[in-house]
Amino acid sequence: MTRIMAMIGDFTFSLDKKSFDTLSHTKEYSFAEIPKVNYYTGEQSVGKDIEELGITGTILTTKGGLDPLARLFAIADLKQSVPFIYGYGKVMGDFKITKIKEDLSLFLDDGVNVTVGFNVELKRVRE
Asked: Which domain holds residue 95?
């Protein structure tokens, strides 16, 4: 049984094969300052909020395969929004992958790496 942590489109992070160490969720609220004569500056909500996710971790190639992030890169290459869903079923909404950083390390004598460190950044898409 696969223990799903989260899904980005059809890419699955799971405890069994491809897990992450941290997931950060940032939501930035937009306000404009309104100057007032002889009083404190006021603020007004403007625009839409900016919501971002950051996922970091390390995958062992013995569990996740030699190219464990290939499907994630393919999703990012489409430059389209995909749903982000927590493993327990909570749908966060549609996000676009804005950045993927991949670090290969612990190389064997045949040149094959044992670990893949990664950092994925996503931005929420609002209609």
From this structure: 4-25+51-124
**Considering the entire predicted model, what is its pTM?**
0.84
Q: What is the widest separation between alpha-carbon atoms in the chain? A: 73
Summarised one tens digit per residue, pLDDT across range 37-61 is 888 888 888 777 889 999 999 999 9
**Number of folded domains that form the chain:** 1
In this structure, is residue 75 part of a structural domain? Answer: yes
List, as one string, the DSSP characters of 24-89. Answer: EEEEE--EEEE--TTSPPEEEE-SPPEEEEEEEEEEEHHHH-SSTTHHHHHHHHHT--EEEEETTS
